Automatic annotation (TrEMBL):
<keyword id="KW-0472">Membrane</keyword>
<dbReference type="GO" id="GO:0016740">
    <property type="term" value="F:transferase activity"/>
</dbReference>
<dbReference type="Pfam" id="PF11847">
    <property type="entry name" value="GT-C_AftD"/>
</dbReference>
<keyword id="KW-1133">Transmembrane helix</keyword>
<feature type="domain" description="Alpha-(1-&gt;3)-arabinofuranosyltransferase N-terminal GT-C">
    <location>
        <begin position="11"/>
        <end position="328"/>
    </location>
</feature>
<feature type="transmembrane region" description="Helical">
    <location>
        <begin position="18"/>
        <end position="37"/>
    </location>
</feature>
<dbReference type="InterPro" id="IPR021798">
    <property type="entry name" value="AftD_N"/>
</dbReference>
<protein>
    <recommendedName>
        <fullName>Alpha-(1-&gt;3)-arabinofuranosyltransferase N-terminal GT-C domain-containing protein</fullName>
    </recommendedName>
</protein>
<feature type="region of interest" description="Disordered">
    <location>
        <begin position="61"/>
        <end position="85"/>
    </location>
</feature>
<keyword id="KW-0812">Transmembrane</keyword>
């Protein structure tokens, strides 16, 4: 009867079927809560990669022979190697304003070589240190006179500047800073743009993010001038090359020092460094008679491997305590001693402890 049914629901502990039914209903409501609260899809979902990324991949494919984009004769190949592109600014993972892909949007689209500094670069430690030297220039927002020579030496023909990263969640440098570096550095010129202008919502009289996020084209491509370095112009960025070891400079330091040397030579009006070899590699190869350039690298630092910007500590002194839990404090440089700091008080050592 109705009275018995009401009594059973009022006191479910007296009826096992009613109790089981109520538990099932509650479980179904809880399981479906993501649906009726609109949270079934996690943050960062997207329907498709924007078309401007496919346009970027197509453009890089069409210019993969290293041909000058401004050349009136596209059939005249000025370089005999595929053009490698560097995607900037680097970010631990690809988290865009339009969605979270984690992998780079170019990954499924590009048929040509490209590189990016992310949280898990699948390259040797030396290559990571070299990429970090470029990333620091890009994130600084200041022109770098030796940047083009450094990129050319790394086999980079094009730089892809993206403005669709979400700076808040991707932990990346602001695209405006990268643009200032690229437009102000000699030997780099903008050759293509793709996509709409992107940026955060704006309100009159309101300045967001200290003015570092104006509307910018979603994608800008910059060409790297290899003309100042004939060796770099012939460098197959995706393979080996032959060079005269007698003229190759030896660098006493880490791979990151080459960018600093290129900057210094450019400021002094000297030609780009050209092919060079680290002193530790030169010693193993028996090439110890080449000119030697001494630098103050690699420095004894600790690095947060999960970041791509501002991820290294100040230079450490002997006896300084470790602050990170990494198995290795920094990306290693084989065969090269670390440059250590020293704490001084009134120019006297041993008076300061940290």
């Amino acid at each position: 009867s109705a009275r018995e049914t009401f009594s059973a629901f009022a006191h479910p502990e007296r009826s096992r079927p009613v109790a089981a039914t109520m538990v099932l209903v509650v479980a179904l409501i809880g399981a479906g809560s993501l649906v009726w609260t609109g949270q079934l899809a996690p943050d960062g979902t997207y329907r498709a990669i924007p078309g401007y990324w496919q346009q970027t991949a197509d453009w890089l494919r069409d210019h993969a022979d290293g041909d000058d984009p401004d050349d009136n004769n596209p059939d005249d190949n000025n370089a005999a190697h595929p053009g490698r592109a560097l995607v900037v600014p680097g970010a631990p993972f690809a988290d865009q304003l339009w969605g979270l892909t984690r992998d780079e949007p170019l990954q499924p689209l590009s048929t040509t070589p490209w590189a990016v500094r992310d949280a898990i670069p699948l390259t040797p430690p030396g290559a990571i240190r070299a990429m970090d030297s470029v990333q620091r220039d890009i994130a600084a927002g200041r022109p770098s006179p030796g940047l083009a020579a450094t990129l050319a030496g790394q086999g980079i023909d094009f730089v892809v500047l993206r403005a669709d990263l979400d700076p808040e969640t991707s932990r990346s440098a602001r695209p405006l800073l990268a643009q200032q570096t690229l437009t102000g550095s000699p030997g780099l010129r903008r050759v293509a743009t793709f996509g709409p202008r992107v940026g955060p919502p704006s309100a009159r009289g309101v300045v967001r993010d200290n003015g570092l996020r104006p509307d910018m084209p979603a994608i800008q491509i910059f060409a790297v001038d290899h003309g100042g370095n004939s060796d770099a112009a012939s460098f197959p960025g995706t393979g080996p090359m032959l060079t005269d070891t007698a003229s190759a400079a030896r660098i006493s330091g880490g791979p990151e020092s080459i960018a600093a040397v290129q900057d210094l030579r450019a400021r002094l009006g000297m030609a780009p460094l050209g092919p060079s070899i680290l002193e530790s590699d030169a010693a193993r190869a028996g090439l110890e008679n080449a000119p030697l350039v001494v630098t103050d690298t690699p420095a004894d630092r600790e690095t947060d491997f999960g970041r791509v910007d501002d991820h290294s500590s100040a230079i450490r002194a002997p006896g300084d305590a470790r602050r990170t839990q990494n198995a290795a404090p920094d990306y290693p440089v084989d065969g090269q001693p670390l440059v250590e700091g020293q704490w001084l008080l009134d120019n006297a050592p041993g008076e300061v402890s940290v």
